[in-house]
């Protein structure tokens, strides 16, 4: 009868054997991943690691590089290494063997290596160094296997789905919607990036409004029907969409030449330009919120509820986006001025929204307080807590 320890050991060995068999079948089917039946997690096969070309340092189960880049594990897996990490020629040959179906033809799947493998604990003879293909053929197969990893719509190395990377910008340039490539610190990308940042900050403000602590009444599917903030959350979704439109206009600059400089009309850009309707709509929203608020008679401090404070952050980012867009309109003449008008009005809208959120939450509005010049002139230290703070009650009903 087997002891518990022996049984446990056998169970472990069976699990390992099963996993290795699953991995072997995945390789024979030229798959980059398989599902571990014990955990339900997706595991990468040796093919996936060979496509990567080097050890990632994460102690992967089927690392063909012997964990050579794992910190503190130098040499521990070298005896099991099938190729040296970073050996482009060796990995190309192995990828070819997998796609040829010859990876498991003999007990040593690594008959295609190089002399450097002696340095990672393998005794490679001249006979084992004979390969079934030339280096150029292996390169072609390797390139083909990575064709799905070009990025973008071509998919990644380990997925055929659209991925956000393309690798084309690694040298510090990026493409506009016109196809033109410019340096990433170009004025166009400065404006484009700041508008994107603005949209993200507005998104944070929106998230604050619909968070559980905002007490918005919602359907079970999460779509708010009524809210103490009125139409403000829905307006923010509209704003974020329009900011994407603004970014699209920035990314399609009209290239000005000596021939068209005098005749150039900015309104012809982007099929007629950015509609002024969106700016007018912002003004209507500002008016509707302002009508419910007390008269603004002084500078106010950018604080209150977390959502209100976030709107103040958004309006400052909006002003920066506006400053980045000005040169494109005034100096280069490459951007529709209506987009600039929209962003200018948007900062006013975000300021009003910050006040409106405090109003809806029953939060007091703190006004700017002048310094005590008399005390400064006398050289006396003043206890600021004793000074009167001007507080505006925005919504008495809400406070009740």
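-> sequence recovered:
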């Amino acid at each position: 009868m087997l002891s518990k320890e022996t049984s446990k050991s056998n169970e472990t060995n069976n699990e390992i054997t099963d996993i290795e068999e699953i991995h072997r079948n995945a390789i024979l089917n030229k798959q980059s991943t398989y599902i571990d039946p014990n955990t339900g997690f997706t595991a990468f096969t040796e093919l996936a690691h060979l496509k990567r070309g080097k050890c990632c340092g994460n102690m992967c189960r089927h690392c063909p590089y012997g964990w050579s880049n794992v910190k503190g594990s130098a040499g521990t897996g070298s005896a099991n290494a099938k190729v040296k990490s970073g050996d482009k020629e060796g990995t190309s040959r192995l990828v070819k063997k997998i796609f040829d179906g010859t990876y498991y033809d003999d007990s040593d799947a690594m008959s295609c290596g190089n002399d450097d493998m002696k340095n990672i604990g393998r005794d490679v003879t001249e006979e084992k160094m004979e390969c079934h293909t030339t280096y150029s053929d292996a390169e072609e197969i390797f390139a083909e296997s990575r064709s799905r990893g070009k990025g973008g719509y071509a998919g990644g190395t380990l997925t055929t789905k659209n991925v956000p990377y393309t690798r084309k910008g690694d040298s510090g340039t990026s493409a506009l919607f016109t196809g033109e490539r410019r340096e990433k610190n170009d004025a166009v990308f400065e404006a484009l990036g700041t508008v994107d940042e603005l949209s993200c900050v507005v998104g944070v403000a929106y998230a604050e409004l619909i968070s559980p602590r905002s007490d918005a009444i919602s359907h079970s599917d999460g779509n708010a029907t009524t809210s103490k903030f009125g139409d403000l959350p829905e307006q923010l979704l509209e704003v974020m969409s329009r900011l994407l439109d603004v970014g699209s206009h920035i990314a399609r600059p009209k290239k000005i030449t000596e021939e068209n400089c005098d005749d150039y009309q900015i309104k012809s850009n982007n099929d007629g330009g950015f509609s002024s309707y969106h700016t007018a709509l912002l003004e209507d929203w500002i008016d509707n919120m302002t009508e419910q608020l007390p008269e603004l008679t002084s500078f106010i401090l950018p604080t209150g509820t977390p959502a209100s404070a976030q709107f103040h952050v958004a309006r400052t980012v909006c002003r920066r986006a506006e400053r980045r867009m000005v040169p494109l309109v005034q100096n280069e003449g490459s951007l529709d001025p209506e987009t600039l008008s929209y962003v200018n009005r948007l900062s006013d809208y975000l300021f009003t929204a910050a006040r409106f959120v405090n109003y809806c939450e029953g939060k007091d509005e703190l006004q700017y307080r002048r310094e005590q010049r008399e005390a400064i002139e006398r050289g006396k230290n003043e206890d600021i807590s004793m000074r009167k703070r001007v507080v505006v009650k925005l919504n008495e009903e809400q406070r009740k």
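The chain is about 45% helix and 5% strand.
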